[in-house]
């Protein structure tokens, strides 16, 4: 289902860092951030040690704390809701759109209370949420919008890159994501002040740029609030920089493979493709769809050497988040019928043709 893309030049670049012995956060992290901004359109990206750190720090700088509520969809990895609990707030689950796996803007507003602080929009599989509708709701109620864009680097919505739209956007560079630093992430803040706060609080809360080292060799600063040790390291950034090479080419190939999948599956009975609108471009982290007789589908494909699997059913049933499957009609339908077939950077059109042939033989 997934592969880890490591650029052929990565070993050389990481080795150069090891030789230099400057391993921690330094000029390569800066260069990585600069290129995330110029090549992927991210606004003020701060490189961090994981996507989960990005989500946690986003909530911290947004001022989400004990007693607050954050609205999100259950169709995600547990990290999205876990960080909400970590800051003492409560995840409030809204239903999804069956045809996208993304939060349904029409199911948000009636869940807003006096305690609601933020809406977290998870771009399922890399397909952007209805951001215009979500932003409008947030503006009406004075809420912060945080995007969990772990699946969506390189995606665009109404011509704008994901990472430049909302107050805060979180990316993951974990090993099976599009762009990996081994483990890593980025947090983008739209406002320059918030971006500065992110930079400070990712490193203990010390304003590194404005805390000179004194003559006696001690950095001069005053710690005013709680910070974290969430920065990325240069040896990870070296891997990230190598993997950035050819990113757009690989994305183009993914798009071509998706096109081939969609054309080949359009007429297959018992199968429903997910939505694809012209106003947004998915990052295509996953190729998901809905099938009837899912278990038979999985078995039929497995017998021909093709993997097909569910990627995360709704997370609301976890004890930590309430312990029951909520009455969210589309989420429950999605849980029953979602299936994902292989899509990754190691694939070519012949493999897609083979998978299409297998599916067309029926299940
Ligand atoms: C991978 C992922 C995360 C967490 O990212 P890490 O880098 O593994 O911490 C968060 N949200 C979603 C939707 C993810 O897929």
TrEMBL record:
Gene3D superfamilies: Aspartate Aminotransferase, domain 1, Type I PLP-dependent aspartate aminotransferase-like (Major domain)
Keyword annotations: Aminotransferase, Pyridoxal phosphate, Transferase
Keyword Nucleotidyltransferase carried by entry: no
Pfam families on file: DegT_DnrJ_EryC1
CDD domains: AHBA_syn (cd00616)
Gene Ontology MF annotations: transaminase activity
This protein's record includes keyword Secreted: no
InterPro entries membership: DegT/StrS_aminotransferase, PyrdxlP-dep_Trfase, PyrdxlP-dep_Trfase_major, PyrdxlP-dep_Trfase_small
Recorded family membership: Belongs to the DegT/DnrJ/EryC1 family.
Annotated protein name in UniProt: DegT/DnrJ/EryC1/StrS family aminotransferase
Annotated source species: Hymenobacter nitidus
